[in-house]
Structures are given as C-alpha cells and as structure tokens.
Here is the input.
Amino acid sequence: MKILRHRTDLKTGKVTRQTLHAITSMTSSEASPQVIGRITRAQWGIEAIHHVRDTTFAEDTSKIRTGHGPQNMATLRNLAINTLRDAGHHNIAAGLREISYTPFTRPLDLLGLPLTCTAARSTRL
Here is the structure.
C-alpha cells in the first residue's frame, strides 16, 4: 500500500508531505482504506506516549532490560505522567522539576498518600 501524509506545522504554517509504502498480511477485502487509516493513526497515539516517556525519562537509554523490569518501569513512568497530568501539568518535564523541589512530600501529596515516616514528616515542616 502507499500512504500519503500531509502535516502542517501550526506555528510556522509549513506543510510537509511524506510518502510511505507498507506491506500487510491482510487480504485486500480486510485492508480497506478506512481500516489502514485507522491502524496508522492509532500508531501515532502510541508514538506520542512513547515520545513523552523517552524525552522526559530517557526510556530508550535505560539499562533495565531483563525480566519484568522494562514493563514495570514503563508502568511507573506512565503513573508519573498521568499523575502530573491529573494535577494540571501540561509539560511533564516542568512538572517533574516542580516536584523535585520537595521530593519527600510532593509526590506523595499528588498521589494522595499520607506520610508515615517521622523523619519525612519533620522535613515537611
């Protein structure tokens, strides 16, 4: 199949065009233009999530590669991203910086978890 993409940069107005060629194992009746369009657009949703995880948390350079470690870390990164978004942060990197100013209390506050350690409680004062 041949996929033509047109993208307009909203800041500059510049239009870029890209032609992709792809092969599928679907039959011609299964691979309607609507199905192929839905599949390719769904991939961009996945890439958008990965882009945030990679640029903010350097996920692609992670040394965690064995067992369930990669999936567990992806889950923790997603938890951090979604918690920050729920708290109103649109820029995840900026949200992480803000939280880093009070690392012993702020993450717990965002998650709605109480402090139980007396040492951590004293740093909150």
